[in-house]
């Protein structure tokens, strides 16, 4: 199949492109390059020619209806994977109008263009932020969605729009609620490059390498065993594999409908536990200091991935935290900057 990968020049997007090519699909990458990287797309495209595939990079923006009309007219596709979104919780709190506009308008534009092009399969990158501060752990998909940040609210609204599109337009769609994607492709060449970097594992490793000041730990007074937040970490290649399985699921689905799936390991690790794992992997000490809590950070977020395992037949292949960090460590050691 030919798959449109919106945001395919970013961290998860490029890993997705590599996974699609490995499975024999031809990706059309659509990205405004505001946070994506051409070199990463080139790296992800490697091996396509040997498979007889012709991947394509199209520069454009989901906020531009003319860009989208040209895209679908020029490059017919069988399904859409939507990774194009801002995802910084703290920025969404400071600039809610930016997040509501970009996430909602961009998604609505993309859905409308896909509908006009008669594309009926759509996979959306959602987030655990839609749950807010949950009442139970691990979090099941049936748990109430009570976002506490504009990022979470806007993302949940897109899920609701997808549900309405299933009824009104016959769309078959899946929202994959990521927990914490981490690591780098074990094959090499792809990894995290964010500016600013807000994810814990890369910031831990950069602090070890002396590329940044000591790590700031935001809060040590949470109701957890060591006082720091607990999160569920899942390898980025496993996140990409979940999309591939979701694509198969939609292709086999008989009629329209909307489904949500958690993508997480089912295990939680505190900030201090992640640091300890990084020290085991690297053999080096993590310089750090405590700072005040950040708004929008629940104490604990851990997924139940039983639905994904049962229905999508998905499970993490790189499930050990140390191994996730090991892939990231190899990436950051090889980076020039």
Can you lay out the helices and strands and say which pair or pack?
Elements: E1 2-6, H1 11-22, E2 26-31, H2 38-45, E3 56-59, H3 65-74, E4 79-82, H4 89-94, H5 96-116, E5 121-127, H6 150-169, E6 172-178, E7 180-182, H7 200-209, E8 215-218, E9 230-231, E10 233-235, H8 236-252, E11 257-263, E12 269-270, H9 271-282, E13 288-291, E14 300-301, H10 306-312, H11 321-334
Parallel strand pairs: 1-2, 1-4, 2-3, 4-5, 5-6, 6-11, 7-10, 8-13, 9-14
Antiparallel strand pairs: 9-12
Helix pairs in contact: 1-2, 1-8, 3-5, 5-6, 7-9, 7-11, 9-11
| Proportion of beta-strand residues | 15-25%
Radius of gyration: 19 Å
Quaternary state of this entry equals single chain
Span between termini: 37 Å
- Secondary-structure element order, N to C: EHEHEHEHHEHEEHEEEHEEHEEHH
Q: Please count the beta strands (DSSP E, at least 2 residues each).
A: 14
Brief account:
This protein is an alpha/beta fold and 337 residues long. It contains eleven helices and 14 strands. The radius of gyration is 19 Å and the shape is globular.
Q: How would you describe this structure in keywords?
A:
alpha/beta; 337 residues; 3-stranded mixed β-sheet; Rossmann fold; 7-stranded parallel β-sheet
Describe the structure.
- The radius of gyration is 19 Å and the shape is globular.
- The two termini are 37 Å apart.
- Helices cover 41% and strands 18% of the residues.
- Helix 1 crosses helix 8, helix 5 runs parallel beside helix 6 and helix 7 packs across helix 9.
- The mean pLDDT is 96.
- The strands form four sheets. The protein has a seven-stranded parallel sheet, with helices on both faces.
- The protein is an alpha/beta fold and 337 residues long.
- It has a domain of 212 residues: Rossmann fold.
